[in-house]
Amino acid sequence: HVQLVESGGGAVQAGGSLRLSCAVSGVTLGRNCVAWFRQAPGHEREGVAFIHSGGTFYDDSVKGRFTFSKDNTKNTVYLQMNSLKPEDTAVYYCVNAYNHWGQGTQVTVS
Fold first, then answer.
1. pLDDT tens digit at each of 110 positions of the chain
2. Distances (CA, A) of 96 to 27, 63, 73, 89, 101
3. Which of 59, 77, 78, 105 has its CA 20 to 30 A from that of 52?
4. Furthest CA-CA distance within the chain
5. How far is Cα 19 from Cα 80, in angstroms, rounded to an integer?
């Protein structure tokens, strides 16, 4: 049974930082693609960052502020978010290459 469990969301002021985690069980991350998406109220879900064997890629809206990392020993991925802006407010999801999604974690920036 594959599970992705996000954590680390919360409420911060603009300019602050948060570190999201996504713990994966039931499948090994390995070199497979993993991604972070987010969905703000009234908006469609959008891709934020992607990591696979070819490298790490970021949406322009977060480039230079967010860092995506992966720890294969813990089967966990992380999203370090710095210089947060109110427009970063959303529910953040991780998803693996097999289209397994986590339940999401709320990030609110005021």
1. 899 999 999 999 999 999 999 999 998 887 778 999 999 999 999 999 999 888 899 999 999 999 999 998 999 999 999 999 999 999 999 999 889 999 999 999 99
2. 9, 21, 16, 22, 7
3. 105
4. 38
5. 4
